[in-house]
Automatic annotation (TrEMBL):
Keyword terms, alphabetized: DNA-binding, Phosphoprotein, Transcription, Transcription regulation, Two-component regulatory system
SUPFAM superfamilies cross-referenced by the UniProt entry: CheY-like (SSF52172)
Species classification: Bacteria, Bacillati, Actinomycetota, Actinomycetes, Kitasatosporales
Record domain OmpR/PhoB-type: where: 130-228
Residues annotated as domain Response regulatory: 3-116
Modified residues (4-aspartylphosphate): 52
Protein name: Response regulator transcription factor
The keyword Transcription regulation is assigned to this record: yes
């Protein structure tokens, strides 16, 4: 449960968001302009803001910058434009995650819980406890080091398991290659090929390919993410 501010001028998208979030037991407030959003965050402490990039009063990047000027609340940008360059720029400018419209309820919840988990883990200054990670048909038990796909045990190497567990622990979040190298390989440098090779082995075991991904998605020049199949 979280308190969410929805900033969206499209009445249809806005009602759908409010309905999904309320059904998931979140508390929701909504506004249709960036200036109203700024006024809201100045007065109310939200857990997360979902910010539409196509607002009538301010350009998305401008709105994000002004929000960041007054609060460090996690911001998920929502964009109709599937524009990788713009998304990367805004992620670098302080957005925590993004959704491209139209998005499914599953994507919305996955992004939301990932962002909340990260901000709460940071607030608590602790790693989340070891427990079984489930993303759609995938289930990963970090303690027993066992992974299953649709009930069948996956035969993974140590590295493949670590890679899968790391990505599945952040469903929907794009993880940069540099971060994967540091977290899974414990290296501060290395070539991308190492990651690509392990990813392709892992994909084969998950029964998917880079051209037809189900769980593992590569965003060229950005990183890799694991999310529930559409
Ligand atoms: Ca809009």
């Amino acid at each position: 449960m979280a308190s969410v501010l929805v900033v969206e001028d499209d009445q249809f998208v806005r009602s759908a968001l409010i309905r999904h979030l309320t059904e998931a037991s979140h508390t929701v407030r909504s506004v249709g302009t960036a200036l109203e959003a700024l006024r809201e965050v100045a007065h109310i402490g939200f857990d997360v803001v979902i910010l539409d990039l196509g607002l009538p009063d301010l350009d998305g990047a401008e709105a994000l910058k002004m929000l960041r000027g007054i609060t460090d609340v996690p911001v998920i940008i929502a964009t109709a434009r599937d524009d990788e360059a713009e998304i990367v720029r805004l992620l670098n400018d302080g957005a925590d995650d993004y959704l491209t419209k139209p998005f499914s309820v599953e994507h919305l919840s996955a992004r939301l819980s990932a962002v909340l988990r990260r901000s709460r883990a940071t607030a608590a200054g602790a790693e989340p406890p070891s427990r079984v990670i489930r993303v759609a048909g995938l289930s990963i038990d970090p303690l027993r080091r066992q992974a299953e796909l649709d009930g069948a045990i996956l035969d993974l190497t140590r590295r493949e398991f670590d890679l899968l567990a790391f990505l599945a622990g952040r469903p929907g979040v794009v993880v940069a290659r540099k971060e994967l190298l540091a977290e899974v390989w414990q290296q501060s440098y290395g070539d991308d090929q190492t990651i690509d090779v392990h990813l392709s082995w892992l994909r084969r075991k998950l029964g998917e390919t880079a051209a037809k991904p189900r769980y593992l998605h590569t965003l060229r020049g950005v990183g890799v993410k694991l999310e529930p199949p559409r």
